[in-house]
Amino acid sequence: MSFIVKKTINGKDYFYLRTSKRDGNRVIAKTIAYLGKTIKEAELKKSEMEKIKNRGKSKKIMAETGEEKQEKKITIDELASFCKRKGFVFPSSLIYGGLSGFWDFGPLGVELFNNLKKEWWKFFVQEKENMIGIEASIISHPRTWKASGHIANFSDVSVKCKKCKKFSKVDKHELESARCGFCGGELDKQSAKDLNLMLKTQLGPVEEDSLTSYLRPETAQGMFMDFRLVQETSRKQLPFGIAQIGKCFRNEIAPRDFLFRSREFHIAEFEFFINPEEKKCDLLDKTRLDVKLRLLDAETQEKGSSELKETSIGKMLGENNLEEWHAYWLAEQLMWFEKIGLEDRIKVREHMKSELSHYSSATFDLDYEYPFGSKEIAGNANRGNFDLSQHIKESGEKLDLFDEKTKKRVIPRVIEPTFGVERMFLALLCKAYTYDEKRQNIVLKIPAFLAPVKAAVFPLINDEKMEILARDIFNDLKKEFNVAYDCSGSVGRRYSRNDESGTPFCITIDEKSLRGRDVTVRDRDTTQQIRVKISEIKEVLRKLINSEIEFEKAGKIVETRVK
RNA sequence: GCGCGAGUGGUCUAGUGGUAUGACAAUUGCUUCCCAAGCAAUUUGCCCGGGUUCAAUUCCCGGCUUGCGCACCA
Q: Which of A19, A170, A284, A553 is 20 to 30 A from residue A484's alpha carbon, by CA?
């Protein structure tokens, strides 16, 4: 049972909500909420709170009866709308009605996106001894795509069936004899339309004399074409990898699901080159072998089931066509997802034999639980030496190399881990987006090291001295971090705004700061506050962002809340 | 690309053959010593093109965008 009580503090009246509970002979009363300064205000607030409480109850009942097991999940539309409102992602060319499959990153989005790329690069390139990076051109010689096999698909056409009216994809040269893929009916050859899945472009200003090429649909060919040059200039010996993050383009028939399937996007991937005779991987240690995962293996799928297996990299070794180097990189991929906090919604799906490309002996998809379903966020393919061999054939160049260990010339085999950068960006936002019932606002719980803005600095009120101090702190911090300065509206509003932007820390300058040279730092996820010396703020912030120190231990916990 | 539905400020929405409602957000003051308080002011909109009409945001046609289903996804 809860009731309203009046308290008089310093001559002013305040109303609180109290609750009482019988404990044996005693009655224990507890204040549970502040209601306002007048009795009217208090009554209104109380009835509102009861409504909210009852809503929670009915949700619980529904959960028990199984009607609504999960809490309300965000839809992808809501997320897209949120991203537009806060400046993460805008639809491209909106003043002309938009352009399907293209997106712009706004002020917060570009920061998050850059941080994500930077951290990926750090994790897979800079922190690895056997990895180097490149950035290849988006447009390459058209023969690239002949060698890679992409051009072959250009001879495909889409043809309508006369009988069932459905469209089939058919090789142009076999149009005369082809039948409908659905009902086997006769195809309407008049309806044949070319399918251009790569974006075409003309090189040279005079159209008749120009060379037709394509915007790359993947970054991988850059690594294969530059393979020898990179190996020579970096003086790497097998095994080593070449990494790249870059823009790719695909003429998607139906771009859908916000950023998930677009026509212009980034891939972060690397080709890891290994001597085909080398089966051992020295880097596959206990940490990697112990990496846990949820696996949907090929065998299970072939039985028509989608049951997940709880397993580990170590257990998978030797099964599922997984050899040591392949296992090592799969483990590393999972460790990356753990680092960015997405591992609990990742599952690994092994490709079935029927799905495998003819050059690949094993492929795994890493699927993420998006609001619109479990979809591929990253992949891992064992490509053998297919790509290098294709380029050797097409170009006539020597792309094999002399291996110092075995004293033989070899064409390396390749493991290719690949990541959709926008897909990781999207997953981060889906995971981070939280509606906080208590605070009545959205809190974007992005890991601090990825957050677009690391801290917001504000004077508690518009006071000249506080503003000067706040500006000083802000100017000092911005040399090292992306920080924001905010002095508009009430302090509560500023906290809420920053919760929505995913800013992990808010630094507030109050009257005591002027005398004591310390400030309060507020944690986004808990709203807890600590007191930190101005001289130590930079160091504390650095440690907090890198999770080197717990928030509660970074300073003295203080309670500043009135309400 | 096919089929069906939808498009009103930044967001969510009311409504109409005579150019539009409300809320939130945003901006600027004032206020405010810690969690979207208050006061005042300000900015912003009928997806685009064509047709019918004296008059179209509204009706019709086409396009674009978007949702769902199918298909596609190297």
A: A553
**Nearest nucleotide, CA A376 to C1':** B73
> Is A424 found in the same domain as A374?
yes
- Count of domains observed in chain A: 4
Helix (H) or strand (E) run with residue A86 in it:
helix A76-86
The answer to whether the C-beta of A255 is closer than 7 A to strand B is yes
Whether A334 and A353 share a structural domain = yes
- Which nucleotide in the DNA or RNA is closest to residue A523, CA to C1'? B35
In the structure encoding, which two tokens stand for residue A403, read together?
A: 């291996």
Q: Where are the alpha helices (DSSP H) in A163-297?
A: 220-225, 227-234, 286-289
Provide DSSP, A352-372.
PTTTS-TT-SEEEEEEEEETT
> What Å value separates CA A422 and C1' B68?
24
Give A324-373 pLDDT, tens digit per residue.
999 999 999 999 999 999 999 999 999 988 777 767 778 999 999 999 99
What distance separates the 2 farthest-apart alpha carbons in chain A? 98
Q: How far apart are CA A307 and CA A301, in angstroms?
A: 8
Interface confidence: ipTM more than 0.90:
yes
Amino acid at A354: S
Cis peptide, bond prior to residue A239, ω within 30 of zero: yes
A545 CA to B67 C1' distance (Å)? 39
pLDDT in tens, A525-544: 999 999 999 999 999 999 99
Domain finish residue from A429, A447, A472: A429
Strand B close to A239 by CB, under 7 A: no
Map residue A54 onto helix, strand or coil: helix
Q: What H or E segment, with its residue span, contains residue A271?
A: strand A264-274
Three-state DSSP at A209 gives helix
A337 found inside a domain: yes
Residue with tokens 């089966």: A279
